[in-house]
Amino acid sequence: MGAIRERALAWLYTRPEARAWALLAPGGFWLLLFFLLPLLIMFVYSLMPRGIYGGVEPGFTLEHYARFFDPLYLQVLQRTFIWSIGCTIICLVLGYPVAYVIARGRRWRTFLLFLVVLPFWTSFLVRTFAMIFLMRDTGLLNNWMLKLGLIQEPMTILYTPFAVMAGLVYGFLPFMILPIYASLEKVDLSLLEAAEVLGARPTARFRRVTLPLSMPGVVAGSLLVFIPALGSFLTSDLLGGAKQVMIGNLVQNQFSSARNWPFGSAASFIVMALVLAAVMFYLRVKDRGPGGATPI
Amino acid sequence: MSSPAGQPVVQFSGVSKCFGDVKAVDDISFDIRRGEFFSILGPSGCGKTTTLRLLAGFEEPDEDGGEVRLLGETVNKKRPYERKIAMVFQNYALFPHLTVARNVAFGLEQRKTPKGQIDGLVRRSLEMVRLKPEVFSRRMPGQLSGGQRQRVALARALVLEPAILLLDEPLGAIDLKLRKEMQLELKALNKQLGTTFVYVTHDQEEALTMSDRIAVMDNGRVAQLGTPAEIYENPRTAFVARFIGESNFFEGTAEQGGGTWDVIGREGEGFRVPHHPSLSNGKLIQIAVRPEWMDVQKPDAVPPGENALVGTVKDIIYLGETMHVIVTIPGAGDVTVALRNEGQLIKPLLWKRGDAAAVAWLPEDCQILEEE
Asked: Which residues of A are less than 8 Å from B163 in CB distance?
C-alpha cells in the first residue's frame, strides 16, 4: 500500500502537468458540479415556457428575455446600477483614507486590520437586522437626535434610499479597504523619498506616485464591491422595503413567490452579461487612465 | 548656485541626530567644497546614511543638534523638495509605473520646466549616462538590468543640474566588473559637470578610487577626514588603519633615548619610531604599519637603520599579485608582510613554515595612532 502511494507520488513529481491537474481536480470538480452545471440548467430554463406551478414546460421561447425590456424592469435595473456605482464610489472615498492610514502607520496596523475584519464574525443577516434597530423611527439614531434637539419628531430613515445605501456601504466597505491596503503596503517607501527629493510636494507625490501605484488595489476593491452590490437583495429587502427594489430582489422574487423560474433565469443572465460588459469597460478605461499602461 | 566661489557648498557644524537612545550622528562638523567628489565611508551603523539623509532633508538634526547649511543657507527644517539637491538611491527607486523617459522627466515636471524643453533635456541626460534614448526611452524599469537602472537613476538626478548630487551606495547591487566601470564614469561625470558629489559607501576601495576627499565615520563621528592618500598613509586611529587597507598593530611604552624615540613592547622587543608631538616618556602607545611597507629578512641580514623584530614564519599565503608572509613574533603576535610578486625575483618562495625570520621596516613608516 505504502509502496504504491510512494510510486504514485514519485510519478506525479516527474510530471509537472499531471501534478497541476491533480491539484486542480478537487476544486475544479466542485465548481463544475455546483456552479457551472446549475448555471447551464438556468440557461436552459430561461429559454423554456413557464410552468403553471413553477418549473418549466417543454418548448423554446425568447419571451422571458423580451419581457425584461419592460420599462418597469428597466427602471429597477437602472436603479440597481446607479446604487451599485454610488456604493462603490462611497466605499472608495471612505475606504482609501482608512487603507492609507493602516498601511502607513506601523504601530496600530494589526489592530486596525483586526477591526476591519471584525464584522465578518457575525452573519450579514444579523448585522443588517441590527441596522434596523439603529435606523427605525424609535431607533437609536432618532433617539439621539431627539435628545440633542436636532429634530423635533422622529425622522424616517428606515425604508428610504439612504438606508439602503448606508447598508450597502457598510456591508461592502471592508472589501474596498483590504485590497487597497494590500497594494499601498507594497509601495516601496524609497519611491516616496525619491519623489520628494525630485521636487514633489506631498500632494504631487500622492497624485503621481502613491495613487498610481495603489491602482491595482483600487481596481480590485471596486470590482469586489460593485459586483456583489449589483446582485445584493438582502439589504434592499430589509432596509429598503418594497419601494427600493433592486435587481437582486426581482430575481429572488421570481424564484420564490412569483414562481416564474424562466423569467428569473433570463433576468439573471441579462444582469450577468451587463456586469461582464461593465467590468470590461472599467478595466479598459483604467488602462488608458493616468496610472495605466501596466507593462508585462 | 548663488553662493560665492570658494564658499563650501555643504557645511555640517556640530550636527547630532538621535533615534531614541541611539546617537546615530554625534556632533559632526565638516565642509564640502564646490565640485569635489566627497565620500562618506564607514561600516554599517556608523552613521553615514543618516548623515546623507540629514543632507537630503529626510531627517532633521536634533534640537540644539547643530546646523546643516547648503550653499550658505541653513536648511535644518527644509523639506527635500525645497533643497537644490538630487539623489541616487541604493535600490535605484525608479518609479515602476513610469517609462524611463517619464522617470527622467519627473523632476523637471515637478520643477515646472517648460514642456517644450523637457524632451530635449531627457534625451541629453540619457545620452550623458550612455543610454541610447531611442532604445530606452519607452522601456519600463522592470525591463532593465541592474546596471541600466543605475544609469536611469543617475540620469533622473543629473537632468535637474543640481548643485549637489547625493549618492547612497549606488553601486552596491551591481557586479564587480560593471561596478569598476561605473566608478570611473562617475568620477569623470563629476569632473566634467562640476557638480559636487557626496558619495556614501562602505567599500574602502571604491572610496579610494573615486574621491577627492573622504570622511571616515565610526560610531556616529568623523574619525578622519582627508584625501585618499592622507587617510591611507597617515591613519589617525586604529579604526581608520584597520578599516582602510590592512595594518599590523604594535603596542608598547615610549622611551626617549638621546633625540630618538623607541617603543618597548611587552616582551622587551623594541623598535624606533619617528618623533610625534603626542609622545612622552613612559606613555603607552599604539602603532600601525602597513604590510606592504615591511620586508622579511634573515635575522642576521637586516639592513642597518631599519626596525626588525625576530620570529618564526607561521604561514605563507599566495595571492598572485602579492604574497603574504605571516611571522609570529613573541610578544607582538602575528605580523603580516605583503611582498610583491616580482616575476623571477619571487624571493618569498625562499620562505617556508617554521623558518626563523625578521620582519623589517623603516622607522618613518610607523604610524603613531591616537586613542579613539
From this structure: none
For the stretch B21-50, pLDDT in tens is: 999 999 999 999 999 999 999 999 999 999
Cβ of A197 within 8 Å of Cβ of B86? The answer is yes
CA distances to A128, A167, A178, B154 from A113, rounded to whole Å, are: 22, 21, 8, 39
Contacting residues of A for B106, CB less than 8 Å apart: 195, 198, 200, 208
Residue whose C-alpha is closest to residue B111's, from B155, B165, B78, B160: B160
pLDDT of A143 higher than 50: yes
* Chain A CA closest to residue B55: A197
Q: Do A191 and B93 touch (CB under 8 A)?
A: yes
Chain A partners within 8 Å of B93 (Cβ): 188, 190-191, 193-194
Tens digits of per-residue pLDDT, B252-283? 888 887 777 888 877 777 888 888 888 888 88
- d(C-alpha B36, C-alpha B210), whole Å: 10
At A192, list the grid cell: 516616496
Distance, first Cα to last Cα, chain A: 47
Rounded to two decimals, what is the model's pTM?
0.83
Cβ distance of A194 and B95 shorter than 8 Å: yes
pLDDT tens per residue, range B210-256: 999 999 999 999 999 999 999 999 999 999 999 998 999 998 888 88
A vs B, Cβ pairs < 8 A, gives 64
Q: What is the pLDDT of residues B108-134, one digit of tens each?
A: 999 999 999 999 999 999 999 999 999
Residue B3: pLDDT band (50, 70, 90) is: very low
Q: Which of residues 209-228 of A touch B (CB under 8 A)?
A: 209, 212-213
Measured between CA atoms, the residue of chain A closest to residue B80 is A197
Give the residue ranges of DSSP H helices in chain A: 2-14, 16-31, 37-46, 63-67, 71-104, 109-117, 124-135, 140-147, 161-185, 189-197, 202-205, 211-231, 234-240, 247-255, 261-288
The C-alpha atoms of residue A188 and residue B92 are separated, in whole angstroms, by 11
Please, are residues B196 and B36 in contact by the beta-carbon 8 Å criterion?
A: yes
Domains of chain A plus CATH, in order, are 1-35 (no CATH), 63-288 (1.10.3720.10)
d(CA A191, CA B92): 9
CA distance A207 to chain B (A): 12
Strand partners, B17: B25
What pLDDT, on the 0 to 100 scale, is given for residue B345?
60
Summarised one tens digit per residue, pLDDT across range B321-366 is 888 999 999 888 899 999 887 776 655 467 888 989 999 999 989 9
* Residue A189 touches partner B, C-beta closer than 8 Å: no
**pLDDT tens string B77-90:** 999 999 989 999 99
Q: How many CA atoms lie within 13 A of B295 on its CB side?
A: 14
Distance from CA of B279 to the nearest CA of A (A): 49
Q: What percent of chain B has pLDDT over 70?
A: 97
Tell me the three state secondary structure of residue A56: strand
- Tell me the three-class secondary structure of B134-153, residue by residue: HHHCCCCHHHCCHHHHHHHH
State how far Cα B353 lies from the chain centre: 36
Q: Residue B71 has which C-alpha cell?
A: 550653499
Give the closest residue to B168 by CA, choosing from B48, B327, B290, B77. B48
pLDDT confidence of residue A154: 87
Angle between helices A247-255 and A261-288 in degrees, nearest 10: 150
Q: Which residues of B touch A188 (CB under 8 A)?
A: 91, 93
ipTM over 0.90: no
